[in-house]
Specification:
mainly alpha; globular
């Protein structure tokens, strides 16, 4: 038996370590979004500043994500690891995250320095961009080829569970108070970093020789980079992010106006629970169909279900639609990182991952600028724009399939 046959196709222990980081990222963003307005208004800032900060953070992330991903590629090539970026980024993010409520306690008596708080919020968001692309690009070293969606399904499962805490446990999280909640988030980040570092293998999965990073010189790998390919990755990231944000903003509005007695938290939480429960089966399906084909099907289905939200008239339909949205989005979520990795040379994995997140950050900035006042646009129009964003992402992914060998 050849050595390649003996090599595992997926390093599951390492994938679970990476999933811990993904879960910590999702959890801290849930906490941040729940507390952002409360923290700012407590210090005398207007509610509108929250939108401005999120737009600024996303603009900075649009630049930082590919930059950090690209620099981590160099680190991988020069010293054989991306962990300097991952470790430093997580330590900084953890420190800034716990510093936010600490400043609320110890800086509240000094009104003259209240602008330190927005600075801490932006600093934390920037620190998160230092390690996200370098960390998640490791998926390509823990699995490859048709096994990537299966490995990514573990990240989707953990991220879905963490994301469900927003709609399902928001009151409990708020009842803990900022100091306890932010401390939990900070230590979760540190714990995830320790878990990932402890299981990181000295030698990664054996890659096909044609794709081996060691066999590709820096100059030739840069020549292999395709601007059209990067544009498709960027466009897919923007479409998925914009479609998801609009879906999550529009669905509560529709429930409030058309199903006033519905339990919005439970229904919205059902999206994330369905996402988590269907992640592994969706990963298996994507491995059989092909990741890009599965993503395309998932994105088209997301567009259809997002448009159908406007027909919600009772809790049963709303619940069924939430399950359908979560189930189909698992096909999309599982495929995003594998899709980005497939569009760049193996030794540019961090850059490819960063370009995808950059597209999402630009879309989030546009979302904040154009849809900051939910009442300024009708739910029907918002749902249709969200559906169009998913269809645009499907077009980008489907177009990329023409270049598959």
């Amino acid at each position: 038996m050849s050595s390649s046959n003996k090599s595992p196709k997926v390093l599951w222990l390492q994938v679970w370590g990476l999933a811990a980081v993904q879960g910590a990222i999702a959890l801290t963003w849930v906490i941040y979004n729940l507390y952002l307005v409360k923290l700012l208004t407590q210090f005398g800032f207007p509610k509108g500043l929250a939108t401005g900060l999120l737009i600024l953070e996303n603009i900075l992330a649009a630049v930082m994500e590919p930059l950090m991903g690209g620099l981590s590629d160099r680190s991988q090539r020069w010293i054989g690891t991306r962990f300097p970026f991952i470790s430093v980024g997580i330590i900084l993010a953890s420190a800034f995250f716990i510093a936010i409520p600490a400043f609320m306690v110890f800086g509240s008596a000094i009104a003259a320095i209240r602008w330190v708080l927005p600075g801490l919020l932006v600093a934390w968001a920037l620190a998160m961009t230092v390690f996200r692309s370098p960390a998640l690009s490791l998926l390509g070293r823990y699995a490859f080829g048709t096994n990537l969606p299966q490995a990514a399904s573990i990240l989707t499962l953990v991220g879905g569970v963490a994301g469900a805490m927003g709609p399902l446990a928001n009151q409990f999280i708020l009842s803990l108070g900022p100091m306890v909640t932010f401390a939990i988030g900070s230590f979760t980040l540190l714990g995830a970093a320790v878990a990932l570092r402890s299981v990181n293998p000295e030698i990664s999965i054996e890659q096909p020789k044609v794709e081996s990073p060691a066999s590709v010189s820096p100059s030739s790998s840069w020549q292999q980079l395709s601007i059209p390919h990067l544009s498709l990755v960027f466009g897919a990231g923007a479409g998925v992010a914009l479609g998801f944000r609009l879906m999550m903003q529009t669905f509560p509005q529709i429930l409030q106006s058309q199903v006033p007695g519905a339990n919005k938290g439970l229904i919205l939480g059902g999206i994330f629970i369905a996402l988590a429960l269907t992640a592994i089966p969706a990963g298996t399906l994507a491995s059989r169909l092909g990741n890009r084909q599965a993503m395309t099907y998932g994105l088209v289905a997301m567009a259809i279900f997002t448009a159908l939200m406007v027909l919600t008239h009772n809790s049963a339909i709303a619940s069924g639609l939430a399950i359908a949205l979560g189930g189909t989005f698992s096909l999309v979520s599982n495929g995003t990182i594998p899709f980005a990795l497939s569009m760049v040379p193996p030794d540019k994995a961090g850059l490819g991952t960063g370009i995808y997140f950059s597209g999402g950050a630009v879309a989030s900035s546009l979302f904040g600028a154009l849809f900051s006042q939910p009442q300024s646009i009708t739910p029907i129009v918002s749902a249709l724009i969200g559906a169009a964003a998913f269809l645009a992402a499907a077009l980008f992914v489907a177009t990329s399939r023409k270049d598959e060998g």
